[in-house]
């Protein structure tokens, strides 16, 4: 072989050639045929020893595979020029027979007419990697598609340099190997190399360009390697000089004379020229893994290849761990510059998602299909780290999803605490052990705190570790770290230098000071570090942290953190106290989910601790759980029963009178909301007695509201209005008004309903809208829902369908966001009522039936008769009088069973109207009497309750029936006109218009002379 630059190139003859799984050894003439690929069964797996001349012909063909080998060249090289074409033909025929092919259908040795022969199969001088036998990585098809797009662009002549970034175990190597495996059947030049960090300082620094040297060596031993070795001889002698395994010792001296200048710059220019020349032969794919561990020269060569403007069929893929590339480092600068200038592509390999985890579990051939809770547990524990996910899936496969110790199904809790796989642990431990001792100690202290930590917490942990408890083998004094200021600096330095932790949102303490916070970039790193702590040290650390947080007057938002540390420090009494504080803080912040979580954790902890947790603390926890459940699910929440029973018991043993009074209020509230007004009456007495023992404005207000609601439900709206209309409730001086919006809403709701009943419809609307304003300012969906109900109810009572539909739509939207089915049913009920007469009303009646049933089944308490009346009216408007009458029956039964009587008179009047409508104007004599009795009873009930608005409606019905007497000699018309005069504009326009029309039509006006009839 002759090199065009510098004379003859003498390359080392390879020990073996490989093609289609077969192996040929030139030195011995041995041909080993692959059993699965042999073209005849007779030769499968056979080891053949070729005749010397036949072996020499095969060597010449393999050496220049893919290229023409002329007959003249074969005669010169094999027979020293002393033979003819017949000898060549005999050897070729023998090779074809052994390889199992025919001359007219060649796969290996093809005849080039009258010129010579060409070996057609790909040939390498090293065993070629086979494609992946099994399925590829799951959840990475978009990324594989991105790599395929890079290759397509490179194959078209647009050189592409692409970076694949991801944390340790993210699956970068698996992704790239799958991509390369998919390329194997295609014709391309492939070279791979990996940057390796020396295992010890004694091994010395890595050789410059080592991964590129490995990649070029692989190319020269791959298909067409002879031509690529020739390219190196011509264009890159300095590179070939560093690959002595490819050249004869005699040729080394010639290369040295040609490569006097072996500078980094020259080697980069030669490499670029060599890759360009190789890409002219076939597309070139270079894979460099773990570039974060690469030497500076390797990084510079990557940049140099990306910066070249010339076209080349070259794809260079470089992988690196993003967390190990500190900002300001050379690799970070190179990647940032090339991507910004669009001279390189960048692919960030994120964590696997739930669908990928489910696919892995489904693929694993487990006997049990993966449930969503298992998928969620695997995903949560691994944080989507591909290597960790695979290890957890393997564990599930090995145990078939059961706990090996007991044979029971593996729980999500067991998955959540599954050990870090050895492979992942080694990756992380290796990285951590390369950090300076001081950084490791700071990270160990941070890990003792948890996944997230503040400077205050880390300082407390470090103080314990500095005393020698739980120290690892680092030694030293934590790099001189002492007070919180030093710890803060150490954490900031460690975050900047290592990337193991990152800064998050700071904490603002009650005194206004700011405390920096950090979190581990990956939970796995924290787990590996935490495992190095001893059990005793871990307990001591958590106790110290909890005490430090408590000493700093921890804000309520961080009480949960202090509670967790007390619990981990095995101090259940203090932990329960902090959980109660945390739940109360979450309740004040209107975060019902977190309040429920903290209260539940505290209750479970207190149950295990027994008498060690004071009754008052347990009572606080149960009260917060009840409040959270009410906010999320209403009074029908399934889990309320146990806590209510505990509260009743704890009220007798807690030594905090104010807390007991609060608990008595909660017990009354639940009974009232559930519609058990008999029980609520007895509980109100207990509440009243408890409040008498304390001096608290908020409790006094709650007692007044409870009294008002009780009076309203019992049918005394005027007395209820007198209670809620006190000056401190009506103005800005409402106790705790800005901090307790739910109390304001209750007050305004009660006042609104009572105002409508007594004939002050405009006041009712104003009060309801004021409650809605306060609720919206709070931003709490649950409170907004509660405030929209009286707004809708008042407009419904006023007969304003458009307004009802408007606010019902708002209620439905908020309830959807808050995932509150009860309020969605309320919204649907009123939306059905608000449909206009005609087909819309019939549709509304059908759609109202289900929400009404849902509300009743869900334990709708206070307001149950009223909501049933709305459903009945909707059915009546649609002409379904049978359903309307049955619904009114149910409502009247609810009045009797619950004691909720404020709408009783209207139910009687509504039944009379339904009877009139169903008789189509010609009722029988018995029905006539029943209608009159119902209207007269409605008038009597309304008058006794002081519900003037309902009395006006009932009197209007009587006047339409013929101005019958209602009270001795007083006629209905006379009483109706008197009421209209007394109430003035307080009656809703719809009811006032109906009353005036009835009076005029009946002729009663000639007896009364009321100003109302003249307007």
Show the helix and strand layout.
Blueprint: E1 2-3, E2 7-8, E3 17-19, E4 22-25, E5 30-32, E6 47-49, H1 52-63, E7 68-70, H2 71-79, H3 85-99, E8 109-112, E9 116-119, H4 141-155, E10 160-165, H5 172-183, E11 189-194, H6 210-220, H7 225-235, H8 237-241, H9 249-258, H10 264-281, E12 284-289, H11 296-307, E13 314-320, H12 330-340, E14 345-348, H13 354-363, H14 372-382, H15 386-399, H16 412-416, H17 422-433, H18 437-449, E15 452-454, H19 455-466, H20 484-498, E16 501-508, E17 514-520, H21 523-530, H22 535-551, H23 556-568, H24 572-588, H25 592-609, H26 615-633, H27 640-650, H28 657-673, H29 677-692, H30 697-714, H31 717-724, H32 727-730, H33 741-757, H34 761-778, H35 781-797, H36 801-818, H37 821-833, H38 839-857, H39 864-877, H40 881-898, H41 904-918, H42 925-945, H43 948-962, E18 965-967, E19 970-971, H44 972-983, H45 989-1002, H46 1005-1008, H47 1011-1014
Parallel strand pairs: 10-13, 10-14, 11-12, 12-13
Antiparallel strand pairs: 1-2, 3-4, 4-5, 5-6, 7-9, 8-9, 15-17, 16-17, 18-19
Helix pairs in contact: 1-2, 1-3, 4-5, 7-10, 10-11, 11-12, 13-14, 14-15, 17-21, 18-19, 18-20, 18-21, 19-20, 19-22, 22-23, 23-24, 24-25, 24-26, 25-26, 26-27, 26-28, 27-28, 28-29, 28-30, 29-30, 30-31, 30-33, 31-33, 33-34, 33-35, 34-35, 35-36, 36-37, 37-38, 37-39, 38-39, 39-40, 39-41, 40-41, 41-42, ...
């Amino acid at each position: 072989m002759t090199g065009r630059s510098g004379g003859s190139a003498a390359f080392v003859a390879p020990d073996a050639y490989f093609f289609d799984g077969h192996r040929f050894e030139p030195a011995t003439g041995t041909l080993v045929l692959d059993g699965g690929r042999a073209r005849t069964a007779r030769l499968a797996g056979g080891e053949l020893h070729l005749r010397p001349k036949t072996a020499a012909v095969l060597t010449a063909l393999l050496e220049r595979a893919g290229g023409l080998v002329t007959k003249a060249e074969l005669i010169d090289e094999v027979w020293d020029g002393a033979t003819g074409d017949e000898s060549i033909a005999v050897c070729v025929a023998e090779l074809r027979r052994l390889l199992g092919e025919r001359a007219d259908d060649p796969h290996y040795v093809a005849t080039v007419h009258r010129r010579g022969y060409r070996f057609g199969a790909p040939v390498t001088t090293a065993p070629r990697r086979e494609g992946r036998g099994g399925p590829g990585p799951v959840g990475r098809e978009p990324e594989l598609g991105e790599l395929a797009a890079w290759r397509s662009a490179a194959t078209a002549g647009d050189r592409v340099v692409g970076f694949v970034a991801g944390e340790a175990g993210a699956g970068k190597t698996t992704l790239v190997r799958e991509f390369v495996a998919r390329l194997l059947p295609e014709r391309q030049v492939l070279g791979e190399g990996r940057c390796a960090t020396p295992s010890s300082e004694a091994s010395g620094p890595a050789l410059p360009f080592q991964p590129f040297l490995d990649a070029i060596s692989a190319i020269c031993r791959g298909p067409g390697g002879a031509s690529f070795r020739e390219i190196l001889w011509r264009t890159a002698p300095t590179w070939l000089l560093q690959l002595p395994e490819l050249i004869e010792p005699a040729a080394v001296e010639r290369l040295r004379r040609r490569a006097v200048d072996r500078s980094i710059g020259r080697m980069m220019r030669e490499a670029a020229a060599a890759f360009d020349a190789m890409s002219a032969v076939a597309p070139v794919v270079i894979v460099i893994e773990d570039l974060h561990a690469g030497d500076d020269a390797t990084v510079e060569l990557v940049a140099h290849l990306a910066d070249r403007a010339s076209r080349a069929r070259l794809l260079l893929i470089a992988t690196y761990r993003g967390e190990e590339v500190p900002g300001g480092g050379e690799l970070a600068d190179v990647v940032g510059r090339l991507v910004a200038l669009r001279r390189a592509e960048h692919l960030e390999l994120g964590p696997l998602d739930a669908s990928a985890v489910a696919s892995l579990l489904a693929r694993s051939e487990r006997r049990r299909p993966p449930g969503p809770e298992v998928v969620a547990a695997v995903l949560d524990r691994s944080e989507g780290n591909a290597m960790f996910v695979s290890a957890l899936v393997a564990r599930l496969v090995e145990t078939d999803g059961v706990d090996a110790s007991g044979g029971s199904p593996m729980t999500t809790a067991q998955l959540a605490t599954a050990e870090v796989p050895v492979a992942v642990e080694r990756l992380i431990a290796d990285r951590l052990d390369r950090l300076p001792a001081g950084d490791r100690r700071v990270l160990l202290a941070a890990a003792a705190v948890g996944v997230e930590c503040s400077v205050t917490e880390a300082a407390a942990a470090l103080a314990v570790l500095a005393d020698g408890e739980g120290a690892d083998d680092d030694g030293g004094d934590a790099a001189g770290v002492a007070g919180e200021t030093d710890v803060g600096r150490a954490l900031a330095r460690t975050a900047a230098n290592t990337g193991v932790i990152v800064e998050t949102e700071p904490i603002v303490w009650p005194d206004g000071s700011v405390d920096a916070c950090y979190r581990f970039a990956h939970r796995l790193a924290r787990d590996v570090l935490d495992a190095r702590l001893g059990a005793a040290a871990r307990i001591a650390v958590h106790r110290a942290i909890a005490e430090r947080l408590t000493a700093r007057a921890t804000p309520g938002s961080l009480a949960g953190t202090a509670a967790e540390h007390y619990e981990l420090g095995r101090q259940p009494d203090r932990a329960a106290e902090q959980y109660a504080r945390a739940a109360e803080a979450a309740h004040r912040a209107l975060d019902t989910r977190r309040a429920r979580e903290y209260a539940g954790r505290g209750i479970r902890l207190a149950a295990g601790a027994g008498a060690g947790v004071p009754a008052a603390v347990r009572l606080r926890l149960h009260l917060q759980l009840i409040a959270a459940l009410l906010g999320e699910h209403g009074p029908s929440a399934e889990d309320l029963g146990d806590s209510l029973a505990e509260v009743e018991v704890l009220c007798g043993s807690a030594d905090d009178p104010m807390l007991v009074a609060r608990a008595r209020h909660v017990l009354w509230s639940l009974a009232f909301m559930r519609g058990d007004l008999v029980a609520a009456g007895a509980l109100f007495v207990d509440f009243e007695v408890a409040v008498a023992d304390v001096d608290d404005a908020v409790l006094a207000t709650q007692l007044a509201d409870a009294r008002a609601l009780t009076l309203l439900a019992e049918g005394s709206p005027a007395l209820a209005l007198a209670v809620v209309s006190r000056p401190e409730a009506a103005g800005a001086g409402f106790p705790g008004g800005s901090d307790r919006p739910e109390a304001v809403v209750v007050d305004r709701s009660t006042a609104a309903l009572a105002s409508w009943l007594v004939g002050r419809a405009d006041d009712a609307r104003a009060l309801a809208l004021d409650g809605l304003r306060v609720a919206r300012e709070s931003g709490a969906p649950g409170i907004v829902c509660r405030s929209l109900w009286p707004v809708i109810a008042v407009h419904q009572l006023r007969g304003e369908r458009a307004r009802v539909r408007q606010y019902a739509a708002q209620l439905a939207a908020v309830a959807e966001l808050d995932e509150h089915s009860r309020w969605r049913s309320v919204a649907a009920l009123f939306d059905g009522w608000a449909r206009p007469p005609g087909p819309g009303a019939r549709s509304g009646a059908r759609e109202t039936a289900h929400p009404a049933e849902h509300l009743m089944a869900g334990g709708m308490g206070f307001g149950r008769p009223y909501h049933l009346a709305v459903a009945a009216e909707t059915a009546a408007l649609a002409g379904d009088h049978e359903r309307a009458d049955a619904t009114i029956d149910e409502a009247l039964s609810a009045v009797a069973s619950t004691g909720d009587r404020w709408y009783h008179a209207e139910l009687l009047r509504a039944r009379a109207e339904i009877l009139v409508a169903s008789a189509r104007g010609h009722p029988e004599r018995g029905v006539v009497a029943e209608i009159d009795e119902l209207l007269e009873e409605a008038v009597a009930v309304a008058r006794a309750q002081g519900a003037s608005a309902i009395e006006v409606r009932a009197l209007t019905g009587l006047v339409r029936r013929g101005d019958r007497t209602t009270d001795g000699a007083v006629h209905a018309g006379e009483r109706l006109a008197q009421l209209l005069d007394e109430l003035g504009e307080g009656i809703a326009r719809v009811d006032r218009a109906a009353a005036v029309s009835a009076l005029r039509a009946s002729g009663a006006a000639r007896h009364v002379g009321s100003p109302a009839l003249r307007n």
